[in-house]
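hiii so my PI (J.) wants the whole complex modelled not just the main chain, which honestly fair. so below is everything: two entries, each one labled with what it is. i double checked the lines twice but i was tired so who knows lol
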Amino acid sequence: MGALVGLAPLSGGLFLGWALGANDAANVFGTAVAARIIPYWRAALLCACFVVLGAALQGAAGIETLSAITTQTVTTAVIVSIASAITVTAMTILKLPVSTSQGVVGAILGIGLATDRTELGPLLKVVLCWIGTPIGSLIIAVIAYKVLAFGFRRAPMSMFTRDKILWSGLLLVGLYGSYALGANNVTNTVGMFSGLLPGVSDRLLAVIGGLAIASGTITFGRRVMLRLGSGIMRLDAFTAFVAVLSMSITVHVFAIVGAPISTTQGIVGATLGIGFLRGAHAIHFNALRHIVVGWVFTPIMALILAAAGYAIFC
Amino acid sequence: MFYTRQREVEALIAEYREQAALCVRRFHDSLMRYCRTGDLAQLTRDVVEVHRAESRADDLRRDIETMMYAKALFPESRGDVLGLLETLDTVPNQAELAVRSIVNQYIAIPEPLHPQLSELVNLCSRCVDATMEAVAKLFEDFTNAAALLGKIDEIESRADAIEAQLTQRIFASGDIKDLDKLLLRDLVRDISGICDMAESVADRIRIIVVKRVS
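here's the output for the full assembly
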């Protein structure tokens, strides 16, 4: 009981993890589930397992980076998680694509500015990685599309064999994407509590965050998965495979580097890359404008809320 | 589950192709025999065989559609296969329609028309064989299916030319009654229609292939 009370400050982070799981699982399995290629429950359970696995095995690196941006107390960590959660919820209500990592880093920066204890080095690393996410994902998607399309579209096979390969491919990249999602994004949910809870190591924190993301995927992921994707362009099975693969590679690389990034930015970059290859007419530029607005306002709103929260409660 | 349904659909489509091809073979054999013998009673018996193959093909098509609606295959492939089957099914239907019209309307084919009519029937048979081969290719190596489509177009053009020649001969003939001329013209149009249907299937195949290789 005492241990549970000790973990109470984590509740804001767990809520954030739940929201992240509900939203971001669509980035890895959305296309396959919406197209009824993989049943929702199978996708959700597999995604949840691999999210926890990714968080447990490779989630700690990002937690170290996030905790290095500024020093947190239990109170400021709670403010960060709640400010991020409010931002994520508000953006979701406004139907703007939301990046939890931008919300969390914006809120941490808000606390850092309020306390005048911001470390610019780690912050710069995170911001550079944000810029690098869609660009990296776009480049990987262009290369992957060119290479895979060359071989895949010319290989002698029946149209059903092609479907089988794509089905297996979508399942595998979905699992890989789930692993990368857990490894990278667990930082966003519980990273701010690093070193603040007695007896809770970064690894254990990562497992708890992973479980929170998994619970969001299982309990609320269906609606988002069926609504599907960024709406930037229509993806068929092959382009969805390339997009999820490119996003997963990018997110995984940044997980190894220890930079918390957004799977949404990753999938948007990859989809844009494919869109440019298929001709600009395939891209819905209105949806793209919508996304950019979300990217700009998410960290700003979280920053203001966290700074205001600090001014009121600390 | 996904793999099992695909295999079942693939097996049913192969069976469907066989039945549709059998229907057109029976159409071919019965018309050739009718041209040789003029035996309407025999043709009436042959129509039953043509109908049996057409009906079996219809049953198989319904089975495939039911399986498709039960969520077999990728949605894009599901739409493509359903569209292909719908178009393919017009081929045996047209073959049955052609032989049945002879029986129902007691159409006698004048001897001077036999060589060209036989050639038209042969072309229909070849066109359908090429079409079935192209359909089979989709399920073996779809990138090569397009190579057969040129052959179908070529046969269809030849069939159109013979249809036109036959129509002119029918109406130029002084030995054929006016009403019979109209019946014969419709018969020729119905027979040539088999090639038109086969060409529509070829167009479907072309789209299926282009969607996957471009």
